[in-house]
Amino acid sequence: MDKQRSAAVWAAINDRARADGKPVSIDTVCLICAQALRAQGVAVALNGRLPGYEPVCASGSGAYRLMDLHVTLGEGPGLDALAEDRPVLVGDLAEDGTRRRWPMFAPAAVQAGVRAIFAFPLLLGAISVGVLEISRVEAGWLTPQEAADALVFADAALLVQVQVQQVDHPEGAAGEPVELRWGTAERWAEVHQATGMIAIQSRTDLSTAFVRLRAHAFADDRSLLAVARDVVARRLRFEPDFD
Amino acid sequence: MNLRTKVKTMLDRRTAQTFVELADTLVVGFDVIDLLQTLAERCVDLLDVDAAGILLADQRGSLTLVAASTEQARLLELFQLQDEEGPCLDCYHSGQMVTCPDLAAQPQQWPRFTAAAHQVGFTAVQAFPLRLRDQVLGAMNLFSAATGVPSQENTSVAQALADVATIGITHERTLREHQLITEQLQHALNSRIVIEQAKGMLAERGQITVGDAFTLLRAYARNHNQQLSAVARQVINQDAIMAELLDSQQPSPSDKLDA
To answer: Are strands A116-124 and A88-90 parallel, antiparallel or unpaired?
Structure first.
């Protein structure tokens, strides 16, 4: 458990975006993730409208190839991570067990020069937006610390994505900070309870409700937890947006 | 057989039954959160304590509450506070059991935690690590309203129950442990979030407390022999089941105040 390390990952992402003079994007997250985790490639695929896997971003030469393999072969660690809502970590794609699990994907990935792949779903409860895949040329597991960092990168990708989706919606993500950050409050029960309540109150899905909750906290300069507690205690309601 | 022995025999039988019940839960496709919830409740039944909670270490850097014997809001806050200070945090960091028979005794180890515990009516606490060899996954907390050192027997049973929790989380605990822990732990933590989101939706739709919403979810899962997190997902995805759940049971009005 290392809060400082987690904060360092967020700082690296934000610093890079600032240096580029752009808001944090999925590309920023992939790029910093690849550097931090000695990855040959990092890719993000989103849940499409169809049950699926829609490649949106890749950093590093082999990453697109891996996403292609997932799409064309219909199997692989990334798809399993999406289907099972849990990280799927593969230390050696050439191993027998791995070949049995993904008889087409595993050999094809090895042929493409990849030996290890680590897929982390972009998840916050029932909010599921896609998967982050980290691939390496050499076999071997992530250290516990690297796995912890990867989870933070997955959080960052999720956050970027749920906010980007809001841009298509009338209420937008107005009032959201330029600086992306994710405190430990996001892991607290009240935040998720409040998200559920807001989804019903404002007749939206959970991911929109979550973004509205965060935007409200930011606009009022209050902590996310404090706002969530107001919602749960029914001191604060979110009305539907009329478009 | 004198009374003392009789009581002890009865307790032993209940303890044995609990372990059988928990072992029965550990079958293919079992729900980790449901198991941990049962465990927290059984701790209160068996161990002469007034509340129990299980916290797991999120690898991102915080202790997260995944199960509690009651959904009383102020009790939950007490558990959450332990992300910053408290016996659970110390237990997690040291990997050792922490016993505090009297929180008010000087010098106070955790002043903020002690004050919060006092408000909810607890004066003694014990924390047990959820350990898998060199790794500590979290800790189990037991609270008592009365001060006093717990018996050696209860302490042993409590640690055994904590070990069941560890087995539950890492049920495929063979090779490649760190990887599996990441996979299982994140799945368990995320299941808890799904349940919280569903509680919020149900509470708002039925205008009940989140605590009552949890009681409804759990009763429904039990009665229909389904996983708690599966029912939570249905609530999130289907409006019809939410209505069915709310119709199924009238929660006790006394809980209404405790949101």
So the answer is: antiparallel
Considering the domain A184-232 in this protein, what is its CATH number? 1.10.10
Instruction: Annotate A181-197 with b (16+ C-beta within 10 A) or e (fewer).
Output: ebbbbbbbbbbbbbbbb
- Which amino acid is present at A140? G
Can you tell me the distance from the alpha carbon of A146 to that of B89, in angstroms, rounded to the nearest whole number?
Answer: 23
Instruction: Identify all chain B residues contacting A197, using CB atoms and an 8 Å cutoff.
Output: 200-201, 203-204
Of B60, B65, B201, the CB nearest to A196: B201
DSSP reduced 3-state for A123? strand
Specify whether domain A3-161 bears CATH 3.30.450.40: yes
At A55 the three-state DSSP class reads strand
B175 pLDDT higher than 60: no
Interface test with B, best of A200, A204, A213, A236 (most B CBs within 10 A): A200
Give ipTM to 2 decimals. 0.89
Q: Band of the pLDDT at B177, cuts 50, 70, 90?
A: low
Q: Do the Cβ atoms of B126 and B100 come closer than 8 Å?
A: yes
Contact A43, A30 (CB under 8 A): yes
Measuring CA to CA, which residue among A124, A151, A127, A120 is closest to residue A43?
Answer: A120
* Strand ordering across the sheet containing A116-124: A54-59, A41-46, A127-136, A116-124, A88-90
For residues B200 and A221, give the distance between their C-alpha atoms in angstroms, rounded to a whole number: 24
Q: Kindly list the structural domains of chain B, giving each domain's residue range(s) and its CATH number in brackets, ordered by start.
A: 9-171 (3.30.450.40), 190-257 (1.10.10)
pLDDT at residue A170 is higher than 60: no
Beta bridge partners of B54: B67, B140
